[in-house]
């Protein structure tokens, strides 16, 4: 399923491995930025990460929906796809000019929206759907977030930036008060979802928790009898919510309006395709990601009543206002429309 960690894997070896990964990503992004020409209509570079939360992009890519919608706009669009890990790396790539569309959690969107407010003016383009994120642990003693201790490490895609980190902070604030929102931060460790899932499944490493996303969380629960859900993001956020979103700079949106329109319309095409063809969508996920996931498990995730691949964001404002209250962002969002571009395709958002 994944390359597993040896039971003797140490914290330092994991840290060195991930540091090397981050360095490679940083160097790659820098190289892309240096070589990137000025953008124009008919060109788009999209950064995605790992997991079924990116199924809309997988389908749009496989079915060439961006290119098809571009032709309706009179454009022959060239689409480049980049896969990174963690909201911090994705945000760096967007601000460096290495990509035009960034795919990451609501947390990274809010961070970059706040930091570019009045400058590059980064805002959300669309949601990638409503999917519950689970904090899974293979430590039998951990029943709630209050049970994590110094012997535990919780893997997240990016410490203090990823939506998983922010939801964990939000959960801590709800349990212990806003002043204690970062109480669990000291137990978090940055690790890509595939590696974190391998650690939870194998056991015997310092990683005893993983705040992940589908399908990794589902594979952990299926493969390790000790793995169990400690926290569900829907419980923290107050119901179904958009955890992962797409965002862009104002410059790209205004400078390439036809390309932008084709991209958003392609997302709508992908959403309808998944709803009508879940089995074909599952095959596309496997093919695009070269995944060895059990197909029955994959279909179970896609057909989960709690999962909806819709592009209008839902239930994002609570997290945004929490981040403002604790000082994680300086600009106060009064509405979800403050950090999303106005668009007819997402007008029913929240």
Text of the CATH class of the largest domain: Alpha Beta
**Count of helix runs:** 14
Query: Which oligomeric state applies?
Result: single chain
Ranges where pLDDT stays below 50 over 5 or more residues in a row are: 1-38
Strand order of the largest sheet: 2-1-3-10-4
Distance between the termini: 37 Å
* Radius of gyration over C-alpha positions, nearest whole angstrom: 19 Å
CATH H-level superfamily title of the largest domain = Periplasmic binding protein-like II
Approximately how much beta-strand content do the residues carry?
Answer: 5-15%
Main sheet record: 5 strands, mixed
One letter per element, helices H and strands E, the order comes to: HEHHEHEHEEEHEHEHEHEHHHHH
Number of domains: 2
Q: Considering DSSP H and I runs of 4 or more, what fraction of the residues is helical?
A: 40-55%
Averaged pLDDT, please? 89
What spatial form do the alpha-carbon principal axes imply? globular
